[in-house]
Design goal:
Length: about 290
Amino acid sequence: MRSFLVLAAGGALLASTASAQLVITEIMQNPSMVSDTYGEYFEVLNTSASDIDMDGYIISDNDSDSFSVVGPLVVSAGGRVVFGKNADPLLNGGVTVDYEFGSEMALANGADELVIMAADSTEIDRVEWDGGTLFPDPNGASMSLTNPAADNNDGANWFEASIQTYGDGDFGTPGAQNEDVIFVTISGAPDTVAVGTTANFDVTLENPTARALTYDAWIQATGDVIDQTVLARPNLTLPPTYSVTQPISLPVPGTVPTGDYTVSVNVGDQGPNTVYWSDSFMATVIP
Ligand SMILES: [Ca+2]
Ligand SMILES: [Ca+2]
Ligand SMILES: [Ca+2]
Ligand SMILES: [Ca+2]
């Protein structure tokens, strides 16, 4: 079974970005399937633990583009909203837009800025991209922030989207987690394992994106009296568009209590035990 959990904005990140609250995480300044006057969008993530109503917030650039959000526009805790030039998915390349800004803002393909201010003009977030010097300079793909906790006004923390999750063919993830994703698939898992033998199965890890991804991988065995990591591979780097299948042989010594176990293959951040993607199977340990 292929499965992944979209949890990248989970507890660990929330804790480290308590003051950031709203973060610009994706900018489509240069769509190619439709004209820029229809297809531009940007995405805002709420990294706080509370819902935020952006009613009255001001979005601007450094010169003449500016609009005030006419709400309510509630960004749920850990959730995202998409601001788009045009809200009609039949015209904008298939983007689901939460808020249409229309002619009040344009996202230049070269250097331009996005600034979010609260209704009292307190600056909340700012991205100043540069048309390719430090930032990506895509055409038909969004600029995507690597990690909501990273400084999003540093071009090194942005990459060009390389997967297509919406609409007509441009690359981007409007309204969804930016594209870090690793598919975890277990195959050949046993239903029963006798003590004194090994549990044998295959684990396939696939990085479908166009850039290298580094996460911890570990295998967890959970039963009535046991919940422990049985194999760990910290800081595993998967190259771009890469898939690897690894045979696993877990010894089941005679000291292991018989009974039902869940064996999970997890990928994420092992320190706080944050699982981003996983697959699992159940097996019965028999005498
Ligand atoms: Ca364009
Ligand atoms: Ca602008
Ligand atoms: Ca543009
Ligand atoms: Ca996104």
